[in-house]
Design brief:
Strand order of the largest sheet: 1-2
Bound molecules: arginine
Radius of gyration: 31 Å
Strand content: under 5%
CATH architecture of the largest domain: Up-down Bundle
Shape: elongated
Distance between the termini: 56 Å
Number of strands: 6
CATH superfamily of the largest domain: Fumarase/aspartase (Central domain)
CATH topology of the largest domain: Fumarase C, Chain A, domain 2
Order of helices and strands: HHHHHHEEHEHEHHEHHEHHHHHHH
CATH class of the largest domain: Mainly Alpha
Number of helices: 19
Length: 457
Amino acid sequence: MKAWGGRFKGKTEPLMERFSASIGFDWALYEYDIEGSKAHAEMLHKIGILDEKEREIIINALEEVKREIQEGEFVFSNALEDIHMHIEARLIDKAGEIGKKLHTGRSRNDQVALDMRMYLKKELGEIRDLLRNVLHSFITRAEKEKETIMPGYTHMQRAQITTFAHHLLAYYQMLKRDLERLIQIWKTVDVLPLGSGAIAGSTIPLDREFVRERLNFSSISENSMDTIADRDFVLESIYSIAMIMIHLSRLAEDLIIFSTDEFAFVSLPDELCTGSSLMPHKKNPDSLELIRGKTSRVIGDLFSIFSLLKGLPLTYNRDLQEDKEPLFHAISTVKDVLSIVELCIKGMSVNREKMKEAVYESFMPAVEMAEYLTLKGIPFRQAHVIVGKLVRDCEDKGKQLRNLKLEDLRTYSEAFDKDIIAHIDPLTILRNRKTMGAASFEEVERQIVAERHYLNS
Ligand code: ARG
């Protein structure tokens, strides 16, 4: 008989059983469900609903159920819908009438909110650790590439000289914000929902503070209806994951481009690439392409939850069961992706010569040439026009800025002096940049030192 069998005359249609079952995916919550049930049983003992013996029987039976699930002995069935009913039914198999006391003052509505929060605390913690490892790998790599000069791009056109370290540290900063966001969201998840009942609490004097302490939550939810109705904590968790994925998808895109023969700035580790079934020469960056591809599915997970919540009346509605698959998918994806990215950052090789060549073959020092004139008192807009003309003439004649003689330069502006040649040397540029956060050797060094300290604190 179903838990609600007393109220029903007819049997449930088998199609409906399959349609409504969530056991196919929510079995993954079993450990939390059992931990929560044990805490609830202890609390029921404390307030006198269970005597010592009953408490012990229930706790032992729950432990046995856990072992059965861990060892693959447990039989799941759609008829029992979800993990909560499976565990309770098995408990009653084992503990008989005593097992029927466990659900006192509890509903699957506050139980599922509890399981999800406990699950998320653990998973977000694991994602945080993986993200930290990735951040470490960026700093280690940036340290090695401090002197590696390369073009920085806007519109995919060479824009200003930078270093590969500065480029990597840009991603580091994005991912560091993601880490901080994850830590904040973890705190909003860390609120005990159990004790809210189905919607409105209970006339049984449940000791929520006891359960909070026992299950290691920082605080207790304030409003029983909010507690069981909202899944903002699921949405925020997926949002924080989607943001990580978006940042890593951009990184993947950069590395895919940089690893083409046309750029040849980096070469990806063989372990993360695949070959072609037909073309013997191919080495494809599939891991990075999949990061890009999987990001779209995680964005889909985020939008599933947005639309799941938007029209729901208070409080619990069965729609909420649909929160799990997107969440589980987003979590398992980001964990794999973070591990892949760490391997990639550690294992890729960098072609410093190619990057340097791309700098020397470019007109990027035009920016510093215009700045030079500005420092000599020429209004910037005018300096821009002078150097613009110079670049155009160089292009027409197939010359580089650095090949120009001082006399040539002075035909464009009297302000050019012999120090201009040194001023537009790429290494001088990276030494001379003055602004905080700039692509300069000094600022990159400062970032590396500061971020090492951040990661180790
Ligand atoms: N499997 C349900 C879910 O994931 C658990 C709560 C069911 N509650 C209910 N009243 N049907 O949301």
